[in-house]
């Protein structure tokens, strides 16, 4: 009886999670106020602070690429051609996550089948606890926008080139 109940709950939970959509890396989307995605703050007419925050499935390169892509997109939206990165940083936030387990052991139960006798089993849903390292990245940049060719500064980027080259790497949220 208990086993059937636990099995039913597990199946219902699995179907519920499957119906919620896909869970994966943070797509390129607006974030803000601690949410995952990009955000920007206008500092001066041609100066912005930009960030992109990913979830634990979004790797460092993706977070940095999305932040640069947002800088290029914002530069072009404001009528400029190039942007120079005045400051840039990527934060790494790691924590250890525990999952599974119930008092670090198993739940043992028994049941009786008439004509066959008593049977003893361990609940397969409770196991020893497991641990994993979970890491999230957030990239920041302060950019200054300008018009004309980019020049020789290695911290300057042609916004159209950045958009063209990073565009195929961008994953947008499902509609």
What do these coordinates show?
This protein has three helices and seven strands; from the N terminus they run αββαβββββα. The protein has 175 residues and is of the alpha+beta class. The protein has a five-stranded antiparallel β-sheet with strand order 1-2-6-3-7. A hairpin with a 2-residue loop joins strand 1 (37-44) and strand 2 (47-53). Helix 2 packs across helix 3. The protein is elongated, with a radius of gyration of 25 Å.
Q: How many domains is the backbone divided into? A: 1
**Spatial arrangement of strands, main beta sheet:** 1-2-6-3-7
Q: Would you list the SSEs in sequence order as H and E?
A: HEEHEEEEEH
Overall average pLDDT? 82
The dominant shape is: elongated
Low-pLDDT windows of residues: 4-8, 11-21
* Percentage of residues in DSSP E strands: 35-45%
Q: Summarize the biggest pleated sheet.
A: 5 strands, antiparallel
Q: Helix- and strand-based class?
A: alpha+beta
Helix segment tally: 3
Instruction: Report the end-to-end length measured between terminal Cα atoms.
Output: 42 Å
Radius of gyration, CA atoms, in whole angstroms: 25 Å
Strand tally, please?
7
Helix content: 25-40%
């Amino acid at each position: 009886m208990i086993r059937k109940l636990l099995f039913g709950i597990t199946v219902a939970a699995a179907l519920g999670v499957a119906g919620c959509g896909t869970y994966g890396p943070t797509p390129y989307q607006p974030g803000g106020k601690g949410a995952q995605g990009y955000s920007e703050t206008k500092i001066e007419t041609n100066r912005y602070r930009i960030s992109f925050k990913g979830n634990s499935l979004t790797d460092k390169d993706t977070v940095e690429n999305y932040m640069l892509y947002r800088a290029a997109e914002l530069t072009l939206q404001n009528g400029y051609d190039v942007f120079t990165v005045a400051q840039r940083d990527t934060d790494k936030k790691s924590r250890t996550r525990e999952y599974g387990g119930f008092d670090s052991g198993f739940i043992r139960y028994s049941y009786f089948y008439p004509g066959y006798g008593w049977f003893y089993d361990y609940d397969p849903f409770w196991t020893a606890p497991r641990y994993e390292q979970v890491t999230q990245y957030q990239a920041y940049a302060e950019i200054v926008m300008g018009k004309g060719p980019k020049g020789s500064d290695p911290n300057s980027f042609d916004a159209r080139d950045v958009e063209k080259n990073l565009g195929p790497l961008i994953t947008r949220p499902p509609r």
